[in-house]
# Entry
Amino acid sequence: MGRIVCVANQKGGVGKTTTASNLAAGLAKGGLRTLLVDLDPQCNATTGFGAVPAAEHPLVSERPLAESVVSTDIESLSLLPGSRSVRDVERIAALSRSGSAVLEQHMAYGLGGWDYCLIDCPPSLGDLTRTALAGSTEVLMPIQCEYFALEGLTQMIEVIRDVMQARPGRLQFGGIVLTMHEASLELTHEVEAEVRDFFGEIVFETVIPRDVAVSEAPSHAMSVLDYAPRSAGARAYTELCMEVRDCE
Ligand SMILES: Nc1ncnc2c1ncn2[C@@H]1O[C@H](COP(=O)(O)OP(=O)(O)OP(=O)(O)O)[C@@H](O)[C@H]1O
Ligand SMILES: [Mg+2]
# Structure
């Protein structure tokens, strides 16, 4: 079975969408059949690849997920667009709260046939993130190299533990990636040391540097790997892909 990677952190703007999108692009460029799933009503992963948000979220649509999948400019990369509909978010939340297995079955069925699925989560610990965690085989958490990086992570980890306990043996901790790393800043090194000290070997060796090419790429509907292949950001995401692939 393929790997379903939930990219989550309840903090906003830490690089979840950027990481999900560029990892998905890198894995697909390595020849792996990859699906990027946009579960965030902001739909940044969708528009970042030049796609249009869906009128109805594929997860609550009656149609099989496969019918909502769209292709991208990268051959092996497909996208399951997000939806901006508040009503759909509420429907997903209600289904998830009711303990119904509908969403999980829908995901297991629709996401099972890919080598990799990357799920981009919204910045919250709400029902969308829980739904994504429940449907995933691993969780990858981007942490931004800034002062409040570790604050709030305890709640995030509690939610992950909850989901792990509800489904023993399914969800694993895939790893932590440090984003917007600025080697010239003392603060970056302090945060990196603290995160590595606290989380140990689950922190990826690769760090993602702060790089303007990374932030420009989505406005050209591209991953940084295509937009600026020689940039430090592109190199870092390529290395991260290799680390993710290696840690089966
Ligand atoms: N390595 C980087 N270098 C420079 N800018 C970056 C980098 N990573 C992310 N950014 C920029 O930081 C901002 C936040 O990134 P992103 O949207 O990926 O975070 P997020 O966690 O998905 O946010 P949200 O919680 O709102 O969904 C974006 O403007 C993005 O372009
Ligand atoms: Mg995002």
Q: What stands out?
A: The chain has a mean pLDDT of 92. The first strand starts at residue 3 and ends at 7. The chain has one domain: 3-246.
